[in-house]
Design brief:
20 strands; 9-stranded mixed sheet; 8-stranded mixed sheet; 35% helix; binds flavin-adenine dinucleotide; disordered N terminus
Length: 409
C-alpha cells in the first residue's frame, strides 16, 4: 500500500519572547521587551471590560509607563492621589481617629494616579500597535509546551508559534500556569467588591479615603475634574448582591450614606462591576521556559492599590532579566537566567499578599485584641514620623531591587 503523506505544516514563527495575555501586565511586558530590541510576540485578544474599575498607579508604575511612552496619553485621564485617608468604621472599642498620609511628606507630588482600567489597556494597546519589533497575534493561546530549545504556544485561531521564553500574563485563571504544573495555593474570602464611578457634589481635593468596615474596606478614589471618584466597596457577598440589584439612585444613596456624606450628594456615573474576593499564590513564578506575571502569579483583594502595581513590577523586572541574559549570552528561558527574577518576585508578592490578607482578615475577625493591634498600628503611624515615612515609601515602591525603568531619573 502506498504511503500517504500530508503536506508539511509550515514551520512555526519563532520569537525570543512570547507574552500571552493582553491585559495591562502583558501589554506592559511586551512593550518593554520590544522597546529594548527583543523580538517579541504578544498573543491575546483586545478585550477590555467595562466594569467601572480603576487602578491607582503608584509612583514607580507611572515612571514605567512613562518610559514605555504611554504616560503622555494617560496623564489627562488620571487624577493625582495627594493624600490617603484611613477611617476606622468598624465600630470597635479600639477605634483610632482618622489617619492621613500626605505624599508631600516623602517628597512626592502624589502617591499615585488613578485611571480607568479600560483606558489604561486601550492606551497600552495603541502604543503596542505602533511599536516596531512587536508582533501582535489576535488569538487566545490554546496550549503551551516547553521543549529543549524553545517552547511552543498553540493558537486558538490555528497555527502555533515558538519562543525561547513564554510569559504567562493570562490572568487569575491562567491556562498556561495550569499547563506548567507550577504549584498553586488559592483561597476565597466571604466577600465581593462592588465597583462603579460616581459624580459627587463636593470636591475630593485629591484625597483618597478608605473606610475600614467590619465587612471589608470601602474606598473612594479621586478621578479627574474634582467631582468624580471611583468606588471599590468590599463587603459581604450577600450585601454585595443586594447592592448590585439596586437601581442607580438607590445605590448612589447607599454609597453616600456609607461615605458619611463626606462628598455630598452622589450620582452613579459609569458602568458597574462585581468581583468575588479571592487569593492565589504560586510556589514559584517560573518554570522551564515560562515566567508568570500579573494575576497569573498572584491574586489578592483590592486593598491599598497593590495588585496591578505588583504586576507592573513583574513586567519591568522581567525585562531586566531578559536583557541581563542577552548581555551574558544566556538562554532567556533557562531556569538559571530566571533565578534572580523568581527570587525577587516571590519576595515582593509574598509581602504584599500577607499585608493585604492580614488587614482584610483583621477587619473580618471582630475580635478586640485584633482590633487593638490594628488600632495601635494606625496610632503609631500617626504619631511616629520616621515610621510613617518608611511605611509610605515601602507602600509606593519597595526599596530593594527596583527594576530599571521604575527608578527615579
Ligand atoms: C475591584 C478591584 C480594584 C482594583 N484596584 C486596583 C488598584 O487601584 N491598583 C492596583 O494596582 N490594582 C488594582 N486591582 C488589581 C488589578 O485590577 C489587577 O491586578 C490587574 O487588572 C491584573 O492585570 P493582569 O494583566 O495581570 O490580568 P488581566 O487584566 O486579567 O488580563 C489577563 C488577560 O489575559 C487574557 N487571557 C486569558 N486567557 C488567555 C489565553 N488563554 N490566551 C490569551 N489571552 C488570555 C484575558 O482576556 C485578559 O485580557 C484591583 C482589582 C479589583 C478586582
Amino acid at each position: 500500500m502506498p504511503a500517504t503523506s500530508s503536506p508539511p505544516s509550515p514551520a512555526p514563527e519563532t520569537f525570543a519572547v512570547a507574552v500571552v495575555g493582553a491585559g495591562a501586565a502583558g501589554l506592559a511586558a511586551a512593550l518593554a521587551l520590544a522597546q529594548a530590541g527583543v523580538a517579541t510576540a504578544l498573543v491575546g485578544r483586545h478585550a477590555p471590560v467595562a466594569d467601572g474599575r480603576t487602578v491607582a498607579l503608584l509612583d514607580g508604575s507611572v515612571r514605567f509607563l512613562d518610559a514605555l511612552g504611554a504616560w503622555r496619553a494617560l496623564a489627562p485621564q488620571a487624577a493625582p492621589l495627594a493624600v490617603l485617608q484611613i477611617v476606622d468604621d468598624t465600630g470597635s472599642l479600639f477605634r483610632p481617629p482618622p489617619v492621613r498620609f500626605h505624599a508631600g511628606e516623602i517628597g512626592l507630588e502624589a502617591f499615585g494616579w488613578n485611571v480607568e482600567n479600560a483606558g489604561l489597556v486601550e492606551t497600552l494597546r495603541a502604543r503596542a500597535r505602533a511599536m516596531p519589533g512587536l508582533t501582535l497575534i489576535e488569538s487566545d493561546a490554546e496550549s503551551f509546551a516547553a521543549g529543549e530549545a524553545a517552547a511552543r504556544v498553540v493558537l486558538a485561531e490555528g497555527g502555533a508559534i515558538e519562543a525561547r521564553l513564554v510569559v504567562a500574563a493570562d490572568g487569575a485563571r491562567s491556562r498556561l500556569r495550569g499547563a506548567s504544573g507550577i504549584g498553586v495555593r488559592d483561597w476565597s474570602y466571604p466577600q465581593a467588591a462592588l465597583t462603579t464611578i460616581l459624580a459627587h457634589a463636593r470636591p475630593h481635593r485629591d484625597v483618597s479615603t478608605e473606610f475600614h468596615t467590619r465587612q471589608g474596606p470601602f474606598t473612594l478614589v479621586p478621578l479627574p475634574g474634582g467631582h468624580r471618584s471611583s468606588l471599590v466597596w468590599v463587603t459581604a457577598q450577600a450585601r454585595a448582591e443586594d447592592l448590585a440589584a439596586l437601581g442607580d439612585a438607590d445605590l448612589a444613596a447607599a454609597v453616600e450614606a456609607q461615605a458619611k456624606h463626606m462628598l455630598g450628594a452622589m450620582r452613579i456615573d459609569g458602568p458597574r462591576g462585581r468581583v468575588p474576593m479571592r487569593g492565589l499564590a504560586v510556589a514559584s513564578p517560573v518554570a522551564h521556559r515560562l515566567a508568570l506575571i500579573g494575576e497569573a502569579a498572584h491574586v489578592f483583594p483590592p486593598i491599598g492599590a497593590q495588585g496591578l502595581n505588583l504586576g507592573l513590577r513583574d513586567a519591568a523586572a522581567l525585562r531586566d532579566a531578559v536583557l541581563a541574559a542577552a548581555e551574558d549570552r544566556r538562554d532567556p528561558g533557562s531556569r538559571a537566567a530566571l533565578a534572580g527574577f523568581a527570587r525577587a518576585r516571590r519576595r515582593d508578592a509574598a509581602l504584599r499578599t500577607a499585608a493585604v490578607d492580614g488587614l482584610n482578615r483583621s477587619l473580618l475577625a471582630d475580635l478586640l485584641p485584633v482590633d487593638a493591634l490594628r488600632g495601635l498600628g494606625l496610632l503609631a503611624l500617626q504619631a511616629v514620623g520616621p515610621l510613617r515615612r518608611a511605611v509610605m515609601r515601602e507602600g509606593v515602591l519597595p526599596r530593594r531591587g527596583t527594576p530599571e525603568l521604575m527608578r527615579a531619573r
